[in-house]
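Thread: "does anyone have the structure for this chain?"

Original post by V.I.:
We have the sequence but no experimental structure in hand. Need at least a predicted one for the grant figures.
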Amino acid sequence: MDESDPLLKDSEKESLGWVGGSFVQGAAHKKDNKPCQDMAKFECYKNKFFLVAVADGHGDSRHDQSEHGARIATEVAINEMKKLLEGFDINNKIDDLIKNFKDNFPKHIGKKWKEKVEEHFHSIFPDDEFIAEILVRYGTTLLVSLAVEGKLLVGQIGDGAIIQVNKIKESKFVGVAEEKNVGGSTNSLCASNAYLQWQMGVNDYDAEDLILLCTDGLVNSFTDENQLSLFATSLSERISEFGFEKVVSSLPVWLDHYSEIGSGDDIALAMIYIKPKAIPADILISDGVPLDNPLADISQQVKGDSSDISDRAAGGNGDNKNNSNSEGKTG
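Reply from O.Q.:
Generated one for you, tokens below.
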């Protein structure tokens, strides 16, 4: 992920807000020397649209190229959302944009993902014939969000969660999480009928709303949805108190922690924060330094542990510096 300047300057006061996120290699994958199979990508487009995608490559041995499948999925998702916005006039075509997103996005992204997977396969196995079954090796989930003025378009295939927290710190799940299939399998872009497995939705948003998209590595680190909602609310509180960039800078350490004491899985998390109607000066200008005491006031009921994480100091990525990333952008 590209490096970015964490400073938010006065010239950007008219922007929609901020977007950022992180992805980390899971504790179990570190132990087994497996690559990180989760990915998060996001972009502020034309300084007024936020595009977000997170993906979770399947961990089974049949999906040995899934880290590439997840990366390709997020790249394709961002590009396809940009195409949806080409020529978009927010004053009179919002209904067309929503209809196009719901009706056509799943088909377009499935087609383009397959094309890019085939290109990647031939680049590493030039002498092998590409057949439909090879798509399984790249299997991945995908969650997307497109924020335009006043509307939040969301889509999801497979597990994970999309959560919206408002300015009075009430949270709700805006994605439609699937029921696990027999054996714990999940819906996937590699399925022949993947375009039929998408769950699509549209929601309103307001100033100071926080929208989170996360893979199941984070979801499964909490005992239930209430505890996951508490985590989302605590992030919103921290952003209000310390600013978006500080929170984003702290994400790798926090996500490492949840993986270590919770799911053991890779985690990807991306966030959109809609700016307050009046931005305090100390929130607008952020030094991007990670918080010293992350989520100190929140006691998380994490699987395998019920400890407060206030004793875990936030800092650099440590030995995970090549397997985690965080970045924030303003728009």
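V.I.: this helps a lot. The chain has eight helices and eleven strands.
O.Q.: and The chain has a mean pLDDT of 82.
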